[in-house]
Amino acid sequence: MGTLITRRYVRTRSLQKEMVIDQSIVDRAGRILIARNTIMDEFHIESLKKMGVPGVYIREGEEDDVPEDNTQAPVVSAAVQKEIDKHMVNDRAKVKLSESVKARVAEGIQYIYNDTSSEGFTNTTRNITDDLMKAISDNDAIAVDISTLKISDEYTFKHSVDVATMAMIVAKKYGLNDKEVYELGISGLLHDVGKSKIPNEILNKAGKLTDDEFAMMKQHSLFGYSILKDKDDLSNPIKLGVLQHHEKMNGRGYPMSVESSKINLFARIISVADIYDALVTERPYKKPFSPRDAVEMIMSMTEELDINVMRSFLESVILYPVGTDVELSTGERARVVENNPQYVLRPKVVGLSSGKSYDLSAIENASIVIL
Length: 371
Prior knowledge:
Blueprint: E1 6-11, E2 20-21, E3 25-26, E4 32-34, H1 42-51, E5 55-60, H2 78-87, H3 99-114, H4 121-138, E6 144-145, H5 158-174, H6 178-190, H7 200-203, H8 211-217, H9 220-228, H10 236-244, H11 265-280, H12 291-299, H13 307-316, E7 317-318, E8 325-327, E9 333-338, E10 348-351, E11 357-359
Parallel strand pairs: 6-7
Antiparallel strand pairs: 1-5, 2-5, 3-4, 8-9, 9-10, 10-11
Helix pairs in contact: 3-4, 4-5, 4-6, 5-6, 5-11, 5-13, 6-10, 9-10, 10-11, 11-12
């Protein structure tokens, strides 16, 4: 039996060399400065002190002590494979970015978040959106595989770019025209630009924020609007998307707690994408939720989110790509052979041992779920 790996909060002044950090440290622009699993040295510790980070989580125990996952791909008989092939329907076209485009997008997003007053701010933002729009158009993409959505790499601005990409796909499903989808992409890219004005010690706090710290964090949408409001080359819907992306349909959002009729459509769409990506992304204070759990949480937010936007989101995402192996509540392993946009959690599958097909969206299979 190996040593149990534990996670412990340590104040920065008590950190020692060789400790392994169990969270990522980001700057106000969203860049990861110290990656999770880094072995701390004097430079890292001094950097945390200079940034004003009060404390971090460290990991204790050896990674080698964790039992290896010896799971192998299941052996599928010829008869079962024939059944899988018979039922398999390829997924809808998904958005993809080449490595060169990812690099260009990453460089551009760093530029605009680092210098919000730059003369090239708007042009750089538009260039990034051009790349995202072209990727959607080139692939004729109408869906996004949310279980693997990683448009930008973990060292840049994953959240902003992923939210923009997801929001653009949802907007297409919702019925917005190309100009609106493009402008929504700009708003999505910039929705968190106000966080460049939030102190690092709040952005990186590993524990729960105090009331005063949370009040400061909630100002980021106002800060973002303040950055954009005098930029005449950006439209009002773009600015309102940034300002209102944390407002809720029941009037309990922020920063102004406005009622649903006053919430801009861009903000309603960005809100859904933002919530999903925040749920599945590791933060200094939380572990990530699984894509399935995140989708179920969004489905429960009927009072807070625009129902029509939520529907477009659910019909735009692919949770279990065709070819994925899943565990059924019956105990059988199965392979996904077809997705149903109307029932994102309940695709059609074929049992890997029985060869039997199950349309999980059908009434007769209502008791069978994917674990």
